Amino acid sequence: MSRAVVGGVGGSPFGYAAVMSDHAPDPVTAAAAPEEEVVTPPPPQPDYPRYRVEPGEQISLADLSPDETEHYERKRDVKDELAVHRERIADVQTRLYAEQRKSLLIVLQAMDTGGKDGAIKHVFRGVNPQGCRVWSFKAPSTEESSHDFLWRYHLRTPSRGMITIFNRSHYEDVLVVRVKDLVAEEVWRARYDTICDFERMLARENVVILSSSCTSPRTSRSAAWRRAWRIRASTGSSPPTISRSAPPGMPTSGR
Amino acid sequence: MSRAVVGGVGGSPFGYAAVMSDHAPDPVTAAAAPEEEVVTPPPPQPDYPRYRVEPGEQISLADLSPDETEHYERKRDVKDELAVHRERIADVQTRLYAEQRKSLLIVLQAMDTGGKDGAIKHVFRGVNPQGCRVWSFKAPSTEESSHDFLWRYHLRTPSRGMITIFNRSHYEDVLVVRVKDLVAEEVWRARYDTICDFERMLARENVVILSSSCTSPRTSRSAAWRRAWRIRASTGSSPPTISRSAPPGMPTSGR
Amino acid sequence: MSRAVVGGVGGSPFGYAAVMSDHAPDPVTAAAAPEEEVVTPPPPQPDYPRYRVEPGEQISLADLSPDETEHYERKRDVKDELAVHRERIADVQTRLYAEQRKSLLIVLQAMDTGGKDGAIKHVFRGVNPQGCRVWSFKAPSTEESSHDFLWRYHLRTPSRGMITIFNRSHYEDVLVVRVKDLVAEEVWRARYDTICDFERMLARENVVILSSSCTSPRTSRSAAWRRAWRIRASTGSSPPTISRSAPPGMPTSGR
Amino acid sequence: MSRAVVGGVGGSPFGYAAVMSDHAPDPVTAAAAPEEEVVTPPPPQPDYPRYRVEPGEQISLADLSPDETEHYERKRDVKDELAVHRERIADVQTRLYAEQRKSLLIVLQAMDTGGKDGAIKHVFRGVNPQGCRVWSFKAPSTEESSHDFLWRYHLRTPSRGMITIFNRSHYEDVLVVRVKDLVAEEVWRARYDTICDFERMLARENVVILSSSCTSPRTSRSAAWRRAWRIRASTGSSPPTISRSAPPGMPTSGR
């Protein structure tokens, strides 16, 4: 059964086709067909499938260099290409909002100074704020921490037609708590299942989830936000397994 | 692994021991041991295990007569026994609230005039309102219905130390929608999994769930609220399967 | 114009008549007339008008002894009388809930160990929890403190038909902040106006507000909760002025 | 005392100086002084003070022609100028967000097809969505309408550092209800005071409020959103009085 498949269809990291397609066919097929109904044409190559993680795929973040700059040499190269993407995102959002059928949840996960705020600002400043909401998650409040760990995230998931961006997310609850030894192993281990159940449920209920892990380059951080995006596809069926050697910033499988 | 097991331990439909036990042992063992730390002694026999559904148990609501009155003949019999229970519930609640470790979610499901409001009033009017919250679910608001169907329920689950009562619940989303043909079969069918995942998650996160189905007697409704309680144990592992011949008021398995 | 007048009408500290009267006449007149429609008869004398503060009245909390025990000598005297009150509160609540016209906001203000939790437990444990909600206010969360100071209180005011109890309240925002020098004088001084505007608005919108200041006796605290209640009537027109010599636990006028 | 004064300082309808000034001086003075600390220079003349209503000022919307096009003849003229404004709004927002001291509430009021959605999309699509939230108010939900009429608006006011846009607002509660005769006169009449108290409170608590009434031109609607903006300054002290001959879309004084 085809659930929401996110990421890279049509050569784009933003899963336009998956989010938007009117008839919700197999997204791969949809991507192959020309997207005539989209106002703005798809942005030019290159695209970023190499940073997309397919369901069930095994990857190791350690294998990906955060210093990789691709063919981008100057900040200006990124800027122009980004402007094209921003325009297209705005167009696609207009349709998402008008259709009121699906919603898009973008999860940005990263270490401190990993570029989350910058990514939001630069990538999404072209969207209509009426259809977009950003939630930043910090240390939980007393009320939040007296509920199950997913409570505060579920509460802020997008309603139909909306794009919601999580600046930090429920992934912290299997990351920070492990690094800082805040909860027992059996607790955080069970949370992997919980998270998968939760995302599967959202996918079933028409929320398309796009999870990303941003990592800082080891050298300079300027102009780095773009090349450092690591896209992780999150589907209802089988979330990607990420090897344990992964650096902090992305939950590695607890199983 | 022993998660929260609800219902009937210690000969009580309210699962006192399960909710309260300090050391969270196997609830069955705990129930066998004397509960010395509880102020009020357990209420006298009879108890109600015959109305409790164990995880994985197959039952048919049609086999249970809503007209059954047990040994209760006059309203007064119920009244006196209930007063004892109320006292004990209040005592147990005091500990639940003081411990701030677990919480209790009571789900009351019934048809109209099935006795939900009465059950809440008569059974729970002795509790300290500071530790108890009742939420009645009616037709969803526009905002609620533009989120996944669990959203409005999750938002109102109890925080640690609290008792929360759902007057109607997420079970409606596999009941009413089927009866009235509001959503496609593949949608409501998937919701059974979603509900089980959801309750399993809550159980893992220290929410003890006690789901009940109240049914009206076919004859008179006076003094009927008590004898008509049907307790359904909801645990993290394997929810009870209820046969398809069950009357409305309780989700029957969709599989 | 007669807005909601709270407190003591009909010889009761709970303002039954004001909250409940079907035809909303002048509450003073209503109190004089027999309350035939109320199921339970009014509780026996004595009543507590001496602890009620009328709109515009000047009082000094320092003039009221927290050690005053009235004619109550044993805990048992309080207990029996309280049981009668509890019964009546439950009856009156049933009507409040059924009418869905007005709501009742009870504000409990006190110093630590001032008896707020006990007052809630002992006075309100007879109410139907479906119609009663208690909110305890502690240090504000990050989100709460990044809004205006009334935000978190307004959010939790009762909906029609409900009784809501504030365990601590917006009065803290002119108390604690002064004692601990948390905000500038011009800020807390302006808050007196803000609070009066806010309560006046609620009163206009059918919320009856009953504000109380509980003070601990200087000697023993046992059985003290009852005799130490200080009722302050809060109306839409002119809130009571409390002299500056008042001890912490009740906002004194900032003007 | 100088509270938040909104509108037009520095020749801009967006009250940049008022929102942003570090030292919060008299906004009029601040506007006269060069705004050296703002990155982007103020947009070119013309500015729009003729559409700004000062506190206490008497205006009649009927005197303002919605067909007025100023010197704009082609859509393109508007577009270019708007791009400059958008850039500056984004810059100013960055500072508002970074300072975490004040917040901005923009109230868009208009009749259906009055251009609210378009105004949001075209004016605010350059902002960082992390610092901007838009709330559209439609018919109140059951829960919303069982609270005081301000409840749902107060709940959604901006936290410090944020821009919040109300698409329709609490002004509807003195407009629609009058036109459709939904509430008694004494109820809606009192709401004018309530609204002024509310906005005064927000202003005291560092929320700068910018209320606008958008009106459709009687002829063509294309490119009309810009010329049809009517800025109404809302301050803590004395809200503007608008004559009764005003067309729907803006509350006229009830007194």
Largest interface: A-B, 26 and 26 residues
Which assembly state applies to the chains in this document? Answer: homotetramer
Query: Taking all residues together, what is the mean pLDDT of chain A?
Result: 71
Order of helices and strands of chain A: HHEEHEHEHHEHHEEE
Low confidence ranges of chain A: 1-38, 219-255
Shape of chain A: globular
Measured as a percent range, the helix fraction of chain A is: 25-40%
β-strand percent of chain A reads 5-15%
Q: Round the Cα radius of gyration of chain A to an integer and report it.
A: 18 Å
Strand numbers in spatial order across the main sheet of chain A: 1-7-6-3-5-4
What does this protein structure show overall?
- Four copies of one chain form a homotetramer.
- The first copy, chain A, is an alpha/beta fold and 255 residues long.
- Helix content of chain A is 30%, strand content 15%.
- Chain A is built from eight helices and eight strands.
- Chain A has helices at residues 16-20, 27-32, 75-99, 116-124, 142-145, 151-154, 176-179, 185-204, and strands at 52-53, 58-59, 103-110, 132-136, 163-167, 207-214, 229-233, 241-242.
- In chain A, strands 1-7-6-3-5-4 form a six-stranded mixed sheet, with helices on both faces. The first copy, chain A, has a two-stranded parallel sheet with strand order 2-8.
- Chain A is globular, with a radius of gyration of 18 Å.
- Chains in contact: A-B, A-C, A-D, B-C, B-D, C-D.
- The A-B interface holds A 100, 143, 146-151, 154-155, 157, 159-161, 186, 190, 194, 197-198, 200-202, 204-207 and B 1, 100, 143, 146-151, 154-155, 157, 159-161, 190, 194, 197-198, 200-202, 204-207.
